[in-house]
Write a structure and sequence with these properties.
13 helices; globular
């Protein structure tokens, strides 16, 4: 019931701010703040809704603790987990970082585990989680454990420098990551294991993405590339534990979650070991004895539905940074369109009550080429395919998160590097970018940093 009240509330917010005839930007949903708190402002809410938002923020930011504890509202952490609060992976509600100041891999860069042989992948597409988990360690490696539960292993990353050259002779450098997992506590991985690094995404605009009409996303599908433009986006259809049926995936790097609540529940379970109504079982495999025998929290779920809904509501009602237009904004926008970047990074949608939003994404899966492959198949998303990430707020990532780590594994240290890693369906646009004069490249980068 709470979830439907949230949806109704968001609709009412839009009704009070947007006219009935022309698509308009709802200024109440945007912020002009460019500080490190730019992603953390709530939309304009009534008092009751603001209280729910604040409650959700508290469960998002305050650390969870091991059970049993006097802090029963936040006990139940683990027994296996990567972080003890959401904010550790999403600093200031922003994107995660690949490494910390010392070069050590960050806990916001998690390792998804699956068995990657073809037979199991084909079977996995019929399963509720969309893939076959590694039998000993599950769907994601946990780098921490509670008092009597050994952690699962240690994630490691090393980078190799790759040099390249623009058409005008300007040199550039990229960093190519390689990953390893050491100090495994429960034995070796199964044969055929695949390790897929996924970094935490920025959290702005999630409620608006959820409000996009399904037909407006699906109309951009072109799986067989019938128009011959080299772009063949496709939707990921995923099992939703919220509705117990197949739904359009909109969230995560592989579009594997159908709603904000779905993604929130999944992250709580995998990242913090919190049971909840959508993921009611402990995050332990049958082979992890200490995890299964660990003391549980006092309640049926570590994260009851009312608190899960509050966190989801908090995320749904975060403001979006307003565009910061400058004198060369239009030049950069024209280059963005000329390079066909907008064929995947679709600029805008009209949602309920004619509100116009500009996320710059089609929310479909695209082949990004072998060099960006994570080896992970989930539902209809294959090893090279990723959901087009929204670009709004991109230029504020460094201020908000304290650094920049773009693409699914955070390998790109700025917008330019992210473009240069594009392959697959985007290779023509990438090569066209490399052929631009230096000034035009800068116009494009400045535009992307301002939207």
């Amino acid at each position: 019931m709470f979830f439907y009240k949230v949806v109704t509330l968001l609709t009412l917010i839009a009704l009070t701010a947007v006219g009935c005839c022309d698509s308009k930007i709802d200024k109440k949903s945007y912020t002009d703040d460019t500080s490190h708190k730019a992603f953390s402002h709530s939309m304009d809410l009534d008092r009751q809704s603001e209280n729910i938002h604040v409650l959700g923020r508290s469960f998002f930011t305050i650390p969870w603790v091991e059970a049993p504890s006097a802090t029963t509202a936040r006990d139940g952490l683990g027994p296996l987990f990567s972080a003890n609060s959401c904010k550790h992976c999403h600093p200031n509600d922003g994107a995660g970082l690949a490494t910390d100041a010392t070069g050590k891999i960050s806990r916001s860069l998690v390792m998804r585990l699956s068995i990657s042989n073809t037979r199991n992948i084909n079977n996995g597409l019929k399963m509720k989680n969309g893939f076959i988990s590694e039998p000993t360690y599950g769907a994601q490696l946990s780098i921490n454990g509670t008092s009597d539960t050994p952690y699962e292993g240690v994630n490691n990353v090393a980078y190799k420098t790759i040099q390249g050259k623009y058409a005008d002779g300007t040199l550039y450098e990229l960093q190519e990551p390689s990953y390893s997992i050491t100090d495994l506590q429960y034995g070796e991985f199964a044969e055929g294991v695949n390790i897929a690094p996924h970094i935490a995404l920025a959290l702005i605009g999630l409620g608006k993405i959820e409000a996009i009409k399904q037909r407006d996303i699906l109309k951009n599908e072109d799986i067989e590339d019938r128009d011959g433009d080299g772009i063949s986006g496709k939707a990921n259809w995923v099992y939703s534990p919220e509705t117990n049926r197949s739904e359009l995936g909109r969230f995560t790097w592989k579009a594997a979650a159908a709603s904000v609540k779905h993604q929130t529940a999944n992250a709580a379970h995998n990242d913090m070991g919190l049971t909840n109504p959508l993921y009611p079982k402990e995050n332990c495999t049958q082979r992890e004895k200490e995890c299964n025998e660990a003391i549980k929290g006092a309640y049926e779920f570590d994260l009851p539905e009312s608190r899960l809904d509050a966190i989801a509501f908090y995320l749904q009602t975060l403001k979006i940074p307003a565009q910061r237009k400058h004198k060369n904004f239009t030049k950069g926008e024209q280059i963005f369109q000329t390079l066909s970047c907008n064929k995947c990074h679709r600029e805008s949608y009209t949602i309920a009550n004619n509100e116009l939003i500009k996320p710059y994404s089609d929310f479909l899966l695209h082949d990004m080429g072998d060099r960006l492959s994570d080896g992970h198949t989930i539902f209809k998303a294959t090893v090279n395919e990723f959901r087009t990430p929204p670009l709004w707020g991109l230029g504020l990532y460094k201020e908000v998160s304290g650094g920049v780590a773009l693409l699914h594994d955070g390998r790109a240290r700025d917008i330019e590097e992210a473009i240069l890693w594009h392959g697959g369906e985007a290779v023509v646009s990438k090569e066209a970018f490399k052929a631009l004069p230096k000034q035009d490249r800068q116009y494009l980068l400045d535009f992307l940093g301002a939207i």
